[in-house]
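Project standup — Tuesday

K.O.: blocked on the structure for the chain from last sprint. Re-posting the sequence here as requested.
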Amino acid sequence: MDATTPSITVFDIGGTYLRWADWSPGHGLREVRRRPSPSRTSLPDAAVDELQSALVRAMAGPVPPGGVAGVSFGAALDHRTGTVYASAPLWGAHTRPFDLLGALRSARPDVRWHVVNDVTAALLHVADSPTAHDRGKILLATISTGIACRTMDRRTGGIPVDGCGLQGEIGHLPASVALDGLPVELRCDCGEPGHLAAFSSGPGIRRLGEVVRDRAPDRWEASRLGAGLAAGATFETALAKALAEGDPVANRLLDAATGPVADVVRTALCLDPGIDLVAFTGGVATGLGDHYREALLRHLDRAGLYLTSEREPGWVRERILVCGPGEADGLVGAGLAALAGEAA
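H.V.: unblocked you, prediction finished:
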């Protein structure tokens, strides 16, 4: 496909919003439109099969007759078949497999559909960017409503998957957090206790903030974070502003939330020193920017890689990147995935 070829309709499906646009390599993204995703949050009384049907209808509508569509989908899905295993932000604890690709083909058989996980899509965009031109292997993690990661070797273009067609569902790894020496017990959106996403996702950080508030109400009320929330700001806005103002309570909260993520980074670099870039995207990481990166690096400075962090302290630091807005866009990645699918 070149600049004169008809564009691809691209979708990015998240737990909060469904975005779509027309995209081509020559012209990039056209107008990006969005609407709330059919989810247990936006439609709390709907059954899961009703939410899934509503989602397929919403995606089937915008594609022109005989078109090509690329889909970036925020869920644990089989990279080989387009079957969705679970999406806690969309469907809660529901884990019955859903043949998304088959449902889309049934709804619009005239369209050539290409479905990938949203982290895969974001990784494809990063790997195609100047940021990664001299990097061989990339790990990209998204910290948003949910948490997951993917690795890709740019020299081969391969994104390896396991026997279920999955890779990098780190949000559901066991994790633990302590505040003032006391353990915190929180439940993940998937229904299980003690997952990484229970503490470190967007909803997880809000719940962790409630623990901080309940354990030290006076300190919370006196903080910039507490004052911002009391004034009516959203949690995300209040947290970012409080961090910019150096609020100790906000920094303590971010430090607790990033601890389990730093544990994963440390383990990944220990097991695979061939990883040249560890990039972060998603609403939480991108929204907090340098504050998020510095919180991770503080953990990795305190407890890094055995010997390497002491003898070559820059080796880890130079690999950690928080993507800016638009630098790991699932819509662009969905278009790149569709291009690759069409070529194949």
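K.O.: great, moving the ticket to review. The chain has 15 helices and 15 strands. Residues 303 and 321 are 19 Å apart (CA to CA).
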